[in-house]
Specification:
heterodimer; A: 6 strands; 38% helix; B: 135 residues; alpha/beta; Transcription Regulator spoIIAA; six-stranded mixed beta sheet; 4 helices
Chain lengths: 177, 135
């Protein structure tokens, strides 16, 4: 079940003035046929590009792609679902993805997000990580770093006792001078 | 314009990404178009990478254009094949290299310089960027 709302308060304004909120719940995860992350990422790109500059829509595409890819790479219960929530207003782009994971994944994500919150130069960390992983062409390990270093998102993570984890990515939209 | 070699990624029976190396006189053009979303791009592009490394030294190339303007998306699993391909070009051609990239694309502005290894002076002195508007 999903709900999508979009509103534009003024037509053809110089500054974007639209607010879009949607909450999507998809499951069971095992029933997905194809690349759900790609479909959602491209859909968000197409939708947001109707209301906001393309660089903002592209940021949303990358976040949705990386976070939803993580969901499908860490399926704990094939019968469970995940949720994607997106909010964009002229000030903020906020994307939240929630899914059921095990304690190991929770710890790994918390450690990674804490590291990203503590580094003064996320791009330097990305360079270092790419250099470390490249000789073995290691898959993964760059997605969350990328969101911070490349796309300037602030990440946070929370979880419930039952193992439902939520990764949030927030971007403060800069106003044109 | 002579096509030297090309590589592509197929997904669900359709071509979703392709890279072409073309020669126009003494100018080499290497273009990247489409999206890289798959887990292991080497599965499709390792042959292209090998062939590029064999063919480039056999041609007299005075300048090069590497064009990313039509590369709409690259996941983090695509970073290493991009690095290998551009490294292959830099290692096997002489002269200046113009990199065409999209002005308002975070990946092309922030991460691409890392993948090009611009921290190396030998690379950065040969590299010029041409900024283009996105579609």
């Amino acid at each position: 079940m999903s709900e999508i709302t979009a509103s534009t308060t003024e037509p053809a304004a110089t500054e974007p003035c639209s607010t879009i909120d949607f909450h999507l719940r998809l499951g069971p995860l095992a029933s997905a046929k194809g690349d759900v992350a790609a479909v959602l990422g491209e859909s968000v790109l197409a939708l947001l590009a109707m209301f906001y500059p393309s660089n903002i829509a592209k940021k949303a595409n990358i976040v949705v792609t990386e976070l939803v890819t993580n969901v499908f790479e860490n399926i704990l219960d094939p019968d469970s679902a995940f949720t994607l929530a997106l909010h964009i207003s002229p000030e903020t782009l906020l994307i939240k993805v929630s899914n059921q994971v095990n304690a190991e994944v929770i710890e790994k994500l918390q450690t990674k997000v804490a590291l990203l919150a503590s580094v003064t130069d996320a791009k330097k960390l990305m360079v270092q990580t790419i250099r470390e992983r490249r000789p073995h062409r290691l898959k993964g390990g760059l997605g969350l770093i990328r969101l911070v270093a490349e796309n300037r998102f602030a990440l946070s993570v929370s979880h419930t006792e039952s193992g439902m984890i939520t990764v949030s990515a927030r971007y403060t939209i800069e106003r044109s001078p | 314009m002579k096509i030297l070699t090309y590589g592509e990624i197929m997904d669900g029976g359709a071509s979703v990404f392709h890279s072409v190396a073309k020669l126009d006189g003494s100018t080499l053009l290497v273009s990247f178009e489409g999206v890289i979303r798959i887990d292991n791009p080497y599965r499709f592009l390792s042959g292209y990478l090998d062939e590029l490394g064999k063919l480039l030294p056999t041609h007299a190339i005075a300048q090069t254009v590497i064009d990313f303007a039509e590369l709409r998306f690259c996941n983090s699993n695509g970073f290493y094949i991009i690095m290998d391909l551009v490294e292959c070009v830099y290692a096997n051609v002489e002269g200046t290299i113009t990199v065409r990239r999209v002005r308002d694309d975070d990946w092309q502005q922030e991460t691409l310089p890392i993948l090009l290894n611009l921290e190396e002076e030998a690379i950065s002195t040969r590299t010029h960027f041409e900024e283009v508007r996105g579609l």
